[in-house]
Structures are given as C-alpha cells and as structure tokens.
Prior knowledge:
The structure holds two protein chains of two kinds. Helix content of chain A is about 30%, strand content about 35%. By secondary structure, chain A is α+β, with helices and mostly antiparallel strands. Chain A starts with a strand and ends in an 8-residue tail after the last strand. Chain B is α/β, with parallel strands linked by helices. Chain B has 22 helices and 20 strands. In chain B, the strands form four sheets. Chain B has a six-stranded parallel sheet, with helices on both faces. A six-stranded parallel sheet of chain B has the order 11-10-9-12-13-14, sandwiched between helices. In chain B, strands 16-15-17-18-20-19 form a six-stranded parallel sheet, sandwiched between helices.
Amino acid sequence: MLLENESGALSRVAGLFSARGYNIESLTVAPTEDETLSRLTLVTSGSEDVIEQITKQLNKLVDVYKLTDLTGGPYIEREMLLIKVNAGGTMRDEVKRLVDIFRGRIIDVTDKTYVIELTGTGSKLEAFIDAVRGAGIIEVVRSGVSGIARGDKGMQI
Amino acid sequence: MELTGADIFVRCLKDEGVEYIFGYPGGAALHIYDALYRQEDVKHILVRHEQGAAHAADGYARSTGKPGVVLVTSGPGITNAVTGIATAYMDSIPMVIISGQVPTHLIGDDAFQEVDAVGITRPCVKHNFLVQDVADLAITIKKAFHIATTGRPGPVLVDLPKDVTAQKTEYAYPKTVSMRSYHPTAKGHPGQIKKAVDLMLAAKRPMFYTGGGIIIDNASQPLTELVRLLGYPCTNTLMGLGAFPANDPLFVGMLGMHGTYEANMAMHDSDVLVAIGARFDDRVTGDVSKFCPHAQIIHVDIDPAQIAKNVPVDVPIVGSAKAVMEEMLKLIRAAKQKPDPAALDAWWKQINTWRGQNCLEYDRDAKLIKPQYVIETLHRLTNGDAYVTSDVGQHQMWAAQYYPFNEPRRWINSGGLGTMGFGLPAAMGVKLAHPDATVCCVTGEASIQMCIQELSTCKQYNLPIKIVNLNNRYMGMVRQWQEFFYESRYSHSYMDALPDFVKLAEAYGHVGMKIEKPGDVEGALKEALQMKDRLVFMDFITDQTENVYPMIAAGKAHNEMHLKPCKAVVPTDRELA
Lengths: 157, 577
C-alpha cells in the first residue's frame, strides 16, 4: 500500500481492521523515497470474499493512495529477524553452524550469548527459530513482512 | 489583509455558500463564535444539546441535498455530537463538523475539555482532519466540503485548536481542490451496463429494488423513467422512500422486515433483480442464504465496497445511480428487444394476487386510537405533501407504511443507525430549509424524550413544527420483540412516570394537545395544521397492544412473513397502576 505520510493515516488502516473484525498478521510501514508517501505491507488472511472486501474498504480510505494484492502475481517477501540465544558451552559451535546453514550473521557476542541477524521469508525465520530453540532463546524481534512484486512494473505515483 | 483563523473559517463558510450552521459554543470555540458575531452572512442556530446540532444539520442536508454544517466545542461538545455524526455516516449524509480543540501546545496533556476528537470520530466519519497551522485552514475546509459531498457522501470532521483560530494569515479560498488519493468513480463501465440491460430486457419476473442512493444522487427522475419505460415492479427501501412515486401502480411498497407482502414475495420470486443505490442491509435481506434464490442480481452503487458485500452479485456496476440509469435508458430505447409482454403480464397477475392480501389492513372500528389511523389521517390532511421526520421504533415503521411519499427528500429518518432522538432536531433543520412547507415529526413518547430540550430551540427560532406523538406508554418496538421472542417478559420497556406533554409543550411556549378518542384525531390534526405559525405538540394516546405488521422475523426469508396480527397481550396502564 502507498499511504499519505500524514499523522493518523496508520491508525485509519489499523482501525478499519479492528472495526470490521479482520485480522492483521503483520504490518510494516516506513517512508518511501518520496517523503510524502509511506509504503505499508500488511499480511492478512481470509476467504476470497473477505480479501476482496478488505481491499475495497482500504481503497475507500482517503489516505490510501494505491493498493495491490501482491499474492495476485509473482512477488518477493522478506522479513528480518534479530534473535538473542544462549551460546555457552557445547551449544556455542552448534548455534554458529546453524547460523551458517541459514546464512544468518552473528552481530553481537558475549561469553554466554549471540545476537543473530537473519533475513528471509517468514517460514525460513520460523524454521531457524525452531532450530535454535534447543539452545535457549532469550529474545526474538521480528520486523514483519515487507513485500515487492517481481517484474519491471512498480507501485509509484 | 491578514485574517485570524476564526475569521478565515467563517469566510470559508460564506464562500462555500453555507446558509446555516448548527452549534453550541464553548471555551475552545470562542474565537470562532466571536468571528460569527461580527458578520451576518452565515446564520448560526443555537441548539440545546450538541446531538441536536448534528441531527438538525442532518435534517437540513437530507431535505436539501446540501451539506449540513455543525460547530461544537472541544471535549463534551464533540462527544455529544458523535451520535449525530454516526447517524449521518450510516445514511451517507453530507455533513461538515467543526470541533474546537484545546491549543496545540496543550494537546496530549489531558487539558481541560480535551478529548481526541479525531480518534473518537474516526470510525464514524468519511474522513477527518486536525488543523495545526492556520496556513492549512482554508484548504482543509475546502477538502472537507469536497470529500463530504462527492462520491458516496458522508460526514467529515475538522478539529480546530484554539490557537490556530487566533493565528493570522492571508486569506484565499481555493476554487477547486484535487487530492491524489481521492477519486470517486462516477460513470459506470459501459460493457457492464450493456450486460445489465440485456439481462433486464430478457427478464420474465423482473424487480427493481432501490435505496437511499437514488435520493442522495438526485436520481428519482431517471429511475421513474426507467421503471415506467419497462413497466417493471419497483420497491424502495426505508431509506429510498419517495425516490419512486408511491402513487404509481408500478410501486409495490417498501420491502424488508416490515415491508409489504407483495414487495417481499416479488423479491423472493424474481428472476432478475435490479438493485440501485441500496446496500442489502440485514433488515432488507433477512436470511441472506435464502435471499432472492431464483434471481440474477444487477447491483449499481457508487461505493465499490457495497457491491457483493452481503450477497453475491452477477452484474456489478460501480458508478453514480443517475449516470448509470441515464446510460441504461439510452440503451433500452435503442434496443430491438422489448420486455416479454406475456411473461410480464403473468408476473403482474401474480403480484396483484399478493397485493390482494391487503397486508396493511388494520382494525378501523377500534375503540382506542390506532396509530396507523393517525398516520393515514395525517397523510390525507397534508395531501401527502408534508416533510415527515421520524424517530425510531414502531411509529417510524407506521409512518413509512401509512404515509406514502411521491417525492424524494420528504421522508427524513435514521435508517442505518436507528437513532432515537433524531426526529425533532432533524425537523428543525428541515423547517429552516423549507420555511413555507408543512414539517411533521412523527415520534413516540420514548424517542421524543431523548432530544426534547430542542423544543426550546424551536421557540427561539420560531419553527412551527407539528409533532405527532404516538403515545402507547411503551418503547413499542422493544415491547413487540419482547412479546414475540421473550415470552412477553416486558423488561424495562414500559415508560412509567411520563410527563404531561401538553403542559411540557406549553412550558416551552408551544401549543399542546392531548387526543384520546379516535373520533377526535382528524379534528385535532386539522386544528394543528391550521396553526401555521405555532409549534403544536399532539399527544395521541394510542392502543398499547398494536404491533407492526407485516413482519419478517430477524434471520427469516422474504417468503416467511407474518401477516395476521395476533392480539397482543400487554399489561395496560390500568393494570399496572
């Protein structure tokens, strides 16, 4: 979604979902190269009818400039994970190996812990979280999904 | 020359052609009120409660098509107005609300009379704004009127902090405004319109089902032409009454929960349903899984989100009712195919059989005043030409059933939100807009007490409204549902300790009448209608046992109507005394 970068615009989107009983699974938003516009990626679920209704209701919001359902064509989704895990004793090497397998990066280290950065689809992040669970998770921070369509067409003014 | 924000605001109203604003002053709005004091172009109507201001602006808007304008202060001023704003929102009424706000440096500090007006109203406005700089004021007001009146209309709120109304800047009112993220569709898709017309012409059991969208879009004329050209039956929703003339034989009455037998049966049996400016509300459809089971559905609406929201649609058309119907008329006139006369004849025979049920018949020899008789008599004495506002409940349904409207914008009621207390303040807005017309408020003893303080406003501005109070000493519709669905346990629906409405009306400086016998109804109404320059409060003591029929119970289908009135068993005043 391209959204007018105005105060209250985000709460209109969030308010619509809660008022009409739709579910937000994840939501990311940040300004674009044009500072008057924000780009918002929202993940929701529902039957075809419900998704159609959500799309129409969002399009009605005066602050929504443009909206596309990325699942209607080929698209790329990425999410970033920051995770702090126990990395003492025997687990220290095991966790490092898992990070390598998932192509993540260790970005902070103490005697007992690692902070790991990992980017990918939601399911990849979930697989990694499951894999390191045995080491002992201290903290999980997920950015929420950002998405973009494949091909040469772009969502612009 | 530089003007203050307050003066700029008032100039904006003048340049927007605003005739009346309805409001109530308070601390955060004082600069604006001072600016109003120093000019004569925009007339301010002082209500007695902010809910009344919103309903009065709403009545003005519904009866004229022009946007209603409301001015309230911060905090309780705006929260009191919220019911009226939500009422307008549900019925797509153009309205601009300006609320005072605490100064910008105090926002967020829990200042005196501070409330997050933009947050509180967000779910019940089409859009809202907080103005933080006087330089943005004029363009924001322009945008507010633009959004409120275009596309599917609705209320727009502008929250105006007190310091912004004191800041100064050069004034220029923009002639036009364009917003990159707001482009309502007007014209329908030609291919879809063609498809719809082909379907309409091939229909064997066609039906027009039209709603408030026709009235909002001033599309009664093309609708009337279209229906008459085809000779098809037409039903209106509660919000659409008057859009098609009720005295036309092609009109089969209102549909839905308390619609006519013929309208609902024809809906159920139709094979092509043409829905225009109607939104398939649950009070219209009943059980959606049993809704129009044989019909292919054409749905014309300016709001894409209304199409296929509740009921799947075969031919969706996004566009203004007027523009689409004008295109349909052109295509039908040019088409070689004509409606099948034999099929149409058989269809009308069937509809007339249903009509023969006389579903709106009631006991005309009763010893007590029947509410239906009061409305019928009002209709006769006003030649069906009055503006009728109503509150919400049994009296609203009886007004809709027994006062047939031949013209749009005459029937003014809260259909979507169902707001008790709407009728009297709405009638004030109607009367101001149409000073020479007869304006009646059909109400009940429960609803009228929700905004009764506006009798004082009526006195101040000399608004000779005729109040028809159908007083059955019950919240009638609540009582009816308790009788049907709660084994007659009348929990808190008896209106005990009612005021003496005659004395109350007199205390406010008006004329009060109490009517207790059927034989006195006509005389009282005549007398009241002749008092052109006085507000008359007619308190009709009606039969407490009367129920609204016909009725489709919630969640039932159109062909599952209850027709025969069963005698209600209700404890009467005497038994309760």
